[in-house]
Every structure is written in C-alpha cells, then in structure tokens.
Input
Amino acid sequence: MVEINQLLQLMVEKGGSDLHLAVGRPPVIRLHGRMRTLNTPSLTPEDTVALMKSISSARAQQELGEKGGSDFAFAFAEQSRFRVAIFKQKGHVGLVLRQIPYRLLTFEEIGLSHSIKNLLTKPRGLILVTGPTGSGKSTSLATMIDFINSEYDRHIITVEDPIEYYHNHKKSLITQREIGVDVGTFAEALRRALRMNPDVILVGEMRDLETISAAITAAETGHLVLGTLHTTGAAKTLDRLVDAFPKEQQEQIRVQLASSIVAVISQLLVPRADKPGVLAAFEIMISSPAIANLMRENKTFKIDSVIQTSRKFGMIALDDSLFEHFIAKKITYADMIQRAQDAISLQQKVKEYTENQQGTASAVPKKTEAVAKPEAEQS
Output
C-alpha cells in the first residue's frame, strides 16, 4: 500500500490542490484544476482505513463513527498544511485532503485588485468573499488578513472550521479559534468575540441564520467583519443573506445590510491556457449610495448593471474579468464560456471583439503588414 507521506510529498512537489482517496480506485490528485489518477494499485477498504488512521486524531475518528464524517487540518513536516475531510460512503471510508501552502500570497499573486486594500482600512462593515468550494476564498481571505496584520495595529480574531492558514503576530495581535476545539459553534464564537475587544473578525463560514445575524450585528457595532458564502455574484449573495431570515424580518435586514455591507467579492478559479496552473476571475461589488438604495428597495436584480457601469470605482463584473483573461490569452474560450454568468452576451462580446480586431488588421497598409508579419508569427 502507498504511504500517506509519499502522497503528501507528491502533492507538495507537483503543486496539487486536492488528494482524493477512495476504495476501488488508485489515489487521484487534482492538478491545475484537472483530475489525475496515479499509477498505483486501487485502494482496498483496509487501505483507506489505515490511511485515515495515520493522520486522524481519536476525536476525529470518534466523530466519523458517530456522525459519518469529520473535518480537521494538520501540518505536513514544515512544507505545507492540509485540510482534511474524512467520511463514509457505501459503508467504506473515504478521504479528501486540500493542500494549504504555508506561504501567504500577495494581492498581485492572486490577482486581487488593490482597491480592496482601501476597504480593509475601514473601521466597520461587512466584506464578503464568495464562490463555490475550491474557488480560492480561503486564500484570498488569508491575504487580506495578512495585509491588515502587516500594516496596522489591530486585534484580529479568526473563527474557522478548521483553521487553515496560520498567522503570526506582526503589527496586529492575532487570535485564531477553531470550531470544535476552541469553541463550539460559529455563532457562539462571534458572541464571545465581541467581548474580546476585536477590531477585525474573520468568520470562516456564514452557514446558518444565527451566524449571519451575529456577523451583521458585529459589522454594525463598530467592527470590520470578513466572511464567506458559497454563492456566486453580489446579487445572489445579498439575496441569500436576506432569505436566511423569516419573512417578517427581511425588510429590516435589508436596511441593516444596506448600511453595513462594504463589498462583495465573488471569485472562480480557471485553468490557465498560457502556462500550468490556475488563475482567479473576480466580480467586485463595492457599496455605493446607488447599491445601498437598491438593497433597501429589494431591487438587487439591478445591481449587476451598476457594477458594469462602475469600473472607475473599482468594481468589475465576473464576465468582464473572464473576458479580460481570455483576450490576454490566459484562459481558453471554452473555460470562459463554461463559467460565464451570461454566456450568450459574452459570446456576442467575443464576436464583436474579433470582428473589430479583423477590421483593424485589414485597415493596415500592405507594406506595413509585410514588415509586421514576422513579429506576428513570432508571437
């Protein structure tokens, strides 16, 4: 049987993002967004149990037996950390390990707009980073927390399940609490955090009404709150927050969100076409009087139009971000269209861009074309 340390070392060396261990199949690595099966024997039920026990605590194994699954994180030597999900399926044990690099990335490395840095200096409000599982939300939030930690004297509290990135104290004081280890639930952690003199609170996941309500309250009462949701797009995110509340409270919540929301950053990871790896496409909504008014009036469906016309304020629509990556030849047409919010409009935009480029090329004098041709071929 392959050893867990061999698999983790391979993940670190190859830059894999996820390791899947399932009965009846060899280990599978997600590399640059694609699934790659290793050339090893298929795993038996005994193999996955042994691999699980080699990295799981007694508490995690007990939770697996009682609840059918458990999540935790652990360090692999001094090379990386892994977030682990162990679970049962078809009566067998399965594992998925997500690699969390030790090195925190910069804004430039993840492609996040510098306009976000200005938002992180605000004394209060709610900043949401959203997207599907595996879209890089945790990495973006870790970069934001590291920026605050490096530049400002703040007390930062993170509440996570499990803790992914470890932060050292820099200019700020960092308190990191893990659900199930340091505190029982996200909602309880948020209530207690307000008594710990925080300036910034990171909520690893806003998964229920109690947690969402506590996060909004914290943002209203003089704290900068960073949180995540598994939604795509600012309008859907705001609707998801409001819909979590009973009907009779929703109007009041819309008013609260309109005054407390600072920004919604939605992101997706796309395989690169120019070199190995993935890159992020972002939608950035920054609160403005127009957006706040749309929230209060329950007209969030109009927010997309405001984002598209507010580039000068640091906003960008997800499809525009994808389109910019495509024309820069960083992603393929197929990957762009697959992830588009409005595929038909984006296809039309590509068609118009292509026709414009062809028209520009045909307008160039022939003599210039002959001179330029070798350069075009080189490129």
